[in-house]
Specification:
By secondary structure, the protein is an all-alpha fold. It contains eight helices and no strands. The model has no long low-confidence stretch (mean pLDDT 87).
Amino acid sequence: RWLMALLLGGLAATGASAVVHAHPALPHRAPGYYALTFWVLPGLLVILATLWLPWLASAPIGWAAGLVATGLLLWFVVLAEYHTIDSRDPWYELTHLWLNLVAYGVTFGFFVIIYQARDRSALSATEVLLVSGLLAASLLRAGPAQAGRTWLFAGMVALALGQSTWALNFWRVLPLTAGLWLLLVFYLFTGLAQQQMLGRLTRRALAEFAVVAAAGLFVILRYAS
């Protein structure tokens, strides 16, 4: 199943790459590691769907609906990425928000699957590190000139999530709860990294993130534990 997921994810990433490179505003000499940020979300979305859909095999209608939903979601993701290449695009803000929501949903799905496997910390922390790093790069994408900083901050987010997973494995919780914990950490670190990249990491921004963190902790401890 993992082999099939990787093959399908690779096809989705390749298709997204072809669409993105057709955009007239994309520089022909854009760094390869910038273009790579457009591959991440479509590829991981399809991999996640391939891992989740077999659970609906006993319900043909549910499986078919999930397949159609995945196809539509993938189409909208690739279309949205196309509209985020040029910041002057009238759909730029809306599609950027849409991609953020999808990225957080995919991140949460992977966190639940990885924690549910109950693998050793060396394996599960590495898996979370890779997934969170790739998705952070997709979220932090800010143009070819910022490609180096994008991957630098994504690496920092990945290290933070890997360490968080290692610590979380000592605390036996439900996969859903673990996924919410890791999603909260991922949201906070990607949000702070994004503010830093934009030069807007002020005391007010830190206070806002602290409030979000406190609210998230309350919800998780109150309703998901």
